[in-house]
Amino acid sequence: MVAALLIIGGGILIALAVRPQRHAPQPSPAAAGTIAPASTPGHVSAPGSKGAPGSKARSLPRSEPVAIDIPAIGVNSRLLYVDLNSNGTIQVPPLFGHPSEAAWYKYSVTPGQIGASVIEGHVDTYQGPSVFFLLGDLHPGHTADITLADGTVTVFRVTAVRQYVKNDFPTELVYGPEDYAALRLITCGGAFDESTRQYLSSTIVFASLISTHTASAQPG
């Protein structure tokens, strides 16, 4: 059973589940924020937004991510890697065996490089809430720490948390080029259609790199 399927061409996130045990929190209008740091030219803002704090950070060498921590919602997961299926769709984390682990899309940049690094995770499974169940509770200002294979911990600040219906998935915003080190966190969201066993929307967190430190050191 497929829990989530991201079709790059159409930018559609489809989520299937055996049953929704508990409704995941949905992003609030106040969390819409800005897509990019306020200092980045050409950032996309929500109507009436005053901009989010943040600034462009230097680019880091390529190093694959191994773990993600989001303190505000209690996420602490190692990272699996997902590839493309033969039909051009992105693979998703296993529904059986590792349902509570997030996965990095291996053809996106590594966290800290210039561009958008993409990490996805299930919102729930037939067993209950999964790794990104509380993603909709995040707000601008929260942070996500991504540990890299070289021992660097990249700290990203959330600038926006938004929900998009499947037929209006913002493919360019998620996968398009960026001139700063960006992070996208994706899961399923919105209403659950009992007849089709699908979630009707996607919850997406937009974040930007603000600092780094080594895995053995605490940020100052």
Explain what you see.
By secondary structure, this protein is mainly beta. The protein has one helix and twelve strands; from the N terminus they run E-E-E-E-E-E-E-E-E-E-H-E-E. The strands form two sheets. Strands 3-4-5-6-11-12-10-9 form an eight-stranded mixed barrel. It has a two-stranded antiparallel sheet with strand order 7-8. Strand 7 and strand 8 (128-129) form a beta hairpin.
Could you state the oligomeric state of the chains shown? single chain
Q: How many strand segments?
A: 12
In spatial order, strands of the major sheet run: 3-4-5-6-11-12-10-9
Structural class: mainly beta
List the main descriptive attributes of the protein structure presented here.
220 residues, mainly beta, Sortase, Chain: A, eight-stranded mixed barrel, two-stranded antiparallel sheet, 40% strand, globular, disordered N terminus
